[in-house]
Specification:
The protein has helices spanning about 1-15, 30-40, 70-90, 100-115, 125-130; strands spanning about 25-30, 55, 60-65. By secondary structure, it is mainly α. Strands 1-3-2 form a three-stranded mixed β-sheet.
Length: about 140
């Protein structure tokens, strides 16, 4: 796993403006049920829709125990969570947690296409909704 993390760190360093001169991130693998319970406290979610997450309070990347380092998508998920780790380590300031997604989605897409020739086309409207601070009572 250290070799995969090191390769992704080198890629992030070469392809983004993030300072990667930080300790290796800590990674744990949990069952989908455990991840869902941590993230979706009300259990109102689609099963298996959570691919990974970053715990900012503990500087911890959490991946499902089905994660496979031979799969392009799974490597892209780890890269996405590593972007959040470096946002945290670089003490970047965000108005809300959602703003952390503004970089991670396009960087993940760029990585998947340019390293693995994997086309990931996400819904742009969804991306705007999940990467901006919103107040449902403000129009």
């Amino acid at each position: 796993m250290k070799e995969i993390i090191t390769a992704l760190i080198l890629w992030i360093s070469a392809n983004t403006y993030y300072n990667t001169d930080h300790p290796l991130p800590n990674i744990v693998f949990l069952s989908q049920e455990e991840m869902n319970s941590m993230y979706y406290k009300d259990n109102d979610h689609e099963p298996n829709s959570l691919h990974g997450m970053y715990d900012k309070d503990n500087d911890l990347i959490i991946l499902p125990d089905t994660w496979d380092g031979r799969e392009a998508w799974d490597l892209g998920v780890l890269l996405h969570e590593m972007i959040h780790y470096y946002q945290d380590m670089n003490e970047m300031e965000f108005l809300c947690t959602q703003e952390m997604e503004k970089d991670s989605w396009p960087i993940q897409q760029f990585y998947l296409k340019n390293v693995h020739d994997y086309d990931w086309e996400y819904d742009q409207l969804w991306y705007i909704m999940i990467s901006n601070c919103t107040d449902p009572f403000t129009y």
